[in-house]
Write the structure tokens for this entry.
Amino acid sequence: MDGSVRKPRGDTAEKILDLGEMLIQTRGFNAFSYQDISTALGIRKASIHYHFPSKSDLGAAVLDRYRSRLYAAMAGVDPDAMTSWNILETYFTPYLGYAKTPDRVCLCGALAGEFPALPPDMQTHVTAFFEEHQAWLATILKRGRGSGEFRFSASPAKMARLIFDALQGALLVKRTNGDIRQIKDVIQVFKAIVMPS
């Protein structure tokens, strides 16, 4: 959202970004090469370098686009038309979507596992994603507690960390055993914790 990454244009660049995102989510950033993209898309590596001179440039562009989509989704939430729980249910949707795939996880969750080996610009994106994500969650939780929808004793920031970390971890565990209940149970228990009985 900071606009520091050059916005690629054109169908080829978008296909490269789509595939790069999928490869990061399923393999990790350091486990694929431009040759993988070249082979999958049927284009020359020079075409990839034209749009993204280095793999670091590609990774930063993938992250920039991913964060932009998240911000657009957050901005599209109308708090006047939705309860706080409905907003959180909307927030849970991408997690449930990833859980229905064989091996995809949150992009930034995948990158967190190899954070020390990431280029500095990608580390900045991942850190910002986690901070902004949790801050947004804390705002929704604070709103829900203020309206009486939610009851919990921890601070909204700590509760946001709990749900965010639980969902990210559940996606990783689900990838190992294929059980979508890893995600559904986290959501169900969270609802039981915060919703007044």
About this structure: Confidence is low (pLDDT under 50) at residues 1-6. The radius of gyration is 18 Å.
